[in-house]
Amino acid sequence: MDSDQILIRDLQVSCIIGIQEWERHTRQEVLINLELDTDTTQAGQSDRIDDTINYKTLTKQIIAHTEHSTCFLVEALAEQISRLCLEHPLVQGVRVTVEKPGALRFARSVGVSIRRFRSKSPP
Fold first, then answer.
1. Residue 50: inside a domain
2. Among 39, 84, 98, 106, which has the minimal tally of Cβ within 10 Å of its Cβ?
3. What is the DSSP letter of 89?
4. Residue 84 exposure: Cα atoms within 13 Å on the Cβ side
5. For residue 120, what pLDDT is reported?
6. 122 pLDDT higher than 70
7. What is the pTM of this model?
């Protein structure tokens, strides 16, 4: 299989996330970045959406999931998003980065980046 990626950058979603009491009642913005490992050869040749990952559909699923999530940790939200991505049969692996802008006083953002594969070992 070829090693291609579909990239989704800077997806902004509002959700309940955090360990502080105020964070359990106040929606905060998170920034989500995805790198989806797939083979784009067929789609590149056919020019048909059915031969690739429909990133509009996937993004809508991620937004809906994130808006309704109530995770304490960005690590948990990233794990949930990775599982959602891997449900798509064409996604062989995914890197999910979730950041909380302004979470630390002197930092632009804080976050986590995880890498997950359909199987336990990378393709």
1. yes
2. 106
3. T
4. 20
5. 55
6. no
7. 0.92
Q: How far apart are CA 12 and CA 1, in angstroms?
A: 32
Q: CA-CA distances (angstroms) from residue 73 to 36, 109, 110?
A: 22, 14, 11
The predicted model gives 5-34 an average pLDDT of 97
Q: Is 33 part of a structural domain of the chain?
A: yes
- Cβ atoms of 111 and 97 within 8 Å: the answer is yes
Please tell me the total count of domains within the chain.
1
Cα separation, 111 vs 84, whole angstroms: 19
Tell me the sheet residues that pair with 93: 37, 117
* Residues paired with 28 in a beta bridge: 15
Task: List, for residues 56-87, the tens digit of each pLDDT value.
Answer: 999 999 999 999 999 999 999 999 999 999 99
Give the separation between CA 116 and CA 109, rounded to whole angstroms.
23
Amino acid 103 reads A
105 found inside a domain: yes
For 62, the token pair is: 């991620």
Opening angle at CA 24, ends 72 and 99, nearest 5: 50
